[in-house]
Design brief:
With 258 residues, the protein is of the alpha/beta class. The chain has a domain of 170 residues: Rossmann fold. The chain is built from ten helices and eight strands. Strands 1, 2, 3, 4, 5, 6, 7 and 8 form an eight-stranded mixed sheet that branches. Helix 3 links the parallel strand 1 and strand 2. Helix 6 packs across helix 10 and helix 8 packs across helix 10. The radius of gyration is 18 Å and the shape is globular. The protein starts with 12 loop residues before the first helix and ends with a strand. The N terminus is likely disordered. It binds S-adenosylmethionine. This is Class I SAM-dependent methyltransferase. It comes from Microbispora cellulosiformans. It holds the Pfam family Methyltransf_25.
Length: 258
């Protein structure tokens, strides 16, 4: 079945992998938290182009990468021909055999339609005692970026855009995990200011990649001035002498299925 992620993101897998390759390297310590052991079965949910999937496989685990975007899965297969990847929605996937662990980096906040449905699918994919180890955007993530967006949209007389992300606080997400049949072993909520090294146009470039679909609803002649205004509004908080810095806030957790 061919499936395209319902998220309002229009992923450009090639741009994501080159300009925004930092998403995966900064997620590398998460693989240490997962601690995959040789022979274990691990599912990488929202695997993107498969960089972390390959990292997990390199530790000897059998990994399946799942992503909602065909473009991402095509890139993942092309880059890692020996690994297994499939297209699937985090809200609604099933697996034939149960897994020892589900891993997810920088993806759960995109599965915003129904976070409990995602947690239910993860639980059903795991064996009892299986681990759910993930990092996602947490409450306050990209607050300066998104507030610049909302103000710029409003100033241009546009309807406020519906932002596509789910950035929960630690208490809220811990409760969801516990109600969903998990014991929370570790939960951290922390700032991770992240250089937008390869975004010459700063916040505007970030909007183009991560909220590009919202620009489809903007009259073409307005897009340029709108994004220039986003940059002006975001610059005091996010532009340093060394370049632009995204105000990322992360939620990282390890939970165990009952
Ligand atoms: C920022 S990327 C992270 C990719 C990868 N985990 C990494 O660390 O490089 C987020 C990924 O989540 C995927 N995604 C978004 N919504 C999804 C959904 N509902 N189901 C499955 N994947 C989804 C996107 O297609 C994208 O590849």
């Amino acid at each position: 079945m061919r499936y395209e992620t319902p998220s309002p993101t229009r992923w450009n897998a090639r741009a994501y992998d080159s300009s925004f390759g930092y998403v995966s390297p900064v997620g590398a310590p998460l693989v240490d938290l997962l601690d995959p052991r040789p022979g274990e079965r691990v599912l990488d949910l929202g695997c993107g182009t498969g960089v972390m999937t390959a990292e997990i496989a390199a530790r000897g685990a059998h990994v399946l990468g799942i992503d909602g975007s065909h473009a991402m899965i095509e890139q993942a297969i092309a880059h890692h021909p020996g690994l297994d990847f499939t297209v699937g929605d985090g809200h609604d996937f099933t697996v034939a055999q149960s897994y020892d662990a589900v891993f997810s980096n920088a993806a759960l906040h995109w599965m915003s339609r129904d976070p409990d449905a995602v947690i239910d699918c993860v639980r059903e994919a795991l064996r009892p005692g299986g681990r759910f180890v993930a990092e996602m955007g947490g409450a306050g993530n990209c607050a300066a970026l998104t507030s610049a967006m909302l103000t710029a949209w409003r100033e241009h007389g546009l309807r406020e855009p519906e932002l596509p992300w789910y950035f929960p606080g630690p208490a809220e997400y811990a409760l969801r995990l516990e109600k969903g049949g998990f014991t929370v072993r570790l939960l951290e909520h922390f700032d991770r200011p992240t250089p937008l090294d390869e975004c010459p146009d700063g916040a505007a470039d970030w909007v183009r990649l991560f909220a590009g679909r919202l620009l489809d609803q903007v009259p073409p002649a307005t897009v340029g001035p709108l994004l220039r205004r986003v940059n002006e509004l975001a610059a005091p908080a996010l532009r340093r002498e060394s370049g632009w810095m995204a105000d990322y806030v992360r939620l990282r957790f390890a939970a165990e299925r009952h």
